C-alpha cells in the first residue's frame, strides 16, 4: 500500500520591508512521504520570501514538469517559477523559457557548493534566473519549528530573514535565516 501525503496547515504572516509585501496567508501544504520536514519548511520559506496572492504550491515532487511553487498571470503564464534543490542546468534552461522569473532555493552545504562551482558560469546565460542558498543549519533550525498546525511570522528587512513560529511546543523565539544570493 502506498503511503499518502501528510497535510500541514500554516497561518503565515509576512512583513517584507524590502519589497513592501505585507500579508497573511492560510496555507495547506502536503508533505510527500519521501519529503523531510526541513524541505517542507524550505517550501514555506520560499513562499514567504516571494509572498503574493497568486503564489501557490504545486504538486511538486509528484509531477516533475512542475516547480515547487509558481505564480501565474491572468492568462495562466507562469510569472515566477520556484524550484528547490540542485537542479541540472538543462532543467533550468528549459524552465527559464517557461517563466518570466526562475528562482532556485539551493540547500545541502557541500553538495550545493559543488553544484554552484559546476554551474555558475552557465547561469549567466539565463537572464531571468535567481539562485538563493540556505545553509543546512538554518534549515534544520526551521524544521525544529515544524508542526502539523503552525503560526509563522516572517519579517524580511535589508536582506535579513527572521522566522518566528508559534504553537503548542514553541516559545516564539525568532531565528535568523541567512538567505545567500548566488546570482
TrEMBL record:
InterPro entries: Restrct_endonuc-II-like, YaeQ, YaeQ_sf. SMART domains: YaeQ. This is YaeQ family protein. It comes from Oleiphilus messinensis. The lineage of its organism: Bacteria, Pseudomonadati, Pseudomonadota, Gammaproteobacteria, Oceanospirillales.
Amino acid at each position: 500500500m502506498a503511503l499518502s501525503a501528510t497535510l500541514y496547515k500554516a497561518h503565515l504572516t509576512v512583513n517584507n520591508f524590502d519589497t513592501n509585501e505585507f500579508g497573511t496567508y492560510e496555507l495547506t501544504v502536503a508533505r510527500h512521504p519521501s519529503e523531510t520536514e526541513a524541505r517542507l519548511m524550505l517550501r514555506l520559506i520560499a513562499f514567504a520570501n516571494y509572498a503574493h496572492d497568486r503564489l501557490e504550491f504545486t504538486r511538486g515532487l509528484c509531477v516533475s514538469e512542475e516547480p515547487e511553487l509558481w505564480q501565474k498571470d491572468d492568462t495562466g503564464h507562469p510569472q515566477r517559477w520556484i524550484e528547490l534543490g540542485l537542479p541540472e542546468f538543462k532543467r533550468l534552461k528549459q524552465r527559464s523559457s517557461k517563466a518570466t522569473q526562475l528562482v532556485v532555493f539551493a540547500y545541502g552545504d557541500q553538495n550545493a557548493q559543488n553544484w554552484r562551482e559546476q554551474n555558475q558560469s552557465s547561469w549567466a546565460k539565463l537572464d531571468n534566473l535567481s539562485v538563493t542558498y540556505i545553509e543546512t543549519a538554518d534549515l534544520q533550525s526551521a524544521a525544529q519549528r515544524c508542526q502539523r498546525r503552525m503560526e509563522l511570522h516572517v519579517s524580511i528587512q535589508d536582506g535579513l530573514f527572521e522566522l518566528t513560529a508559534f504553537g503548542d511546543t514553541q516559545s516564539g523565539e525568532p531565528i535568523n535565516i541567512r538567505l545567500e544570493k548566488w546570482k
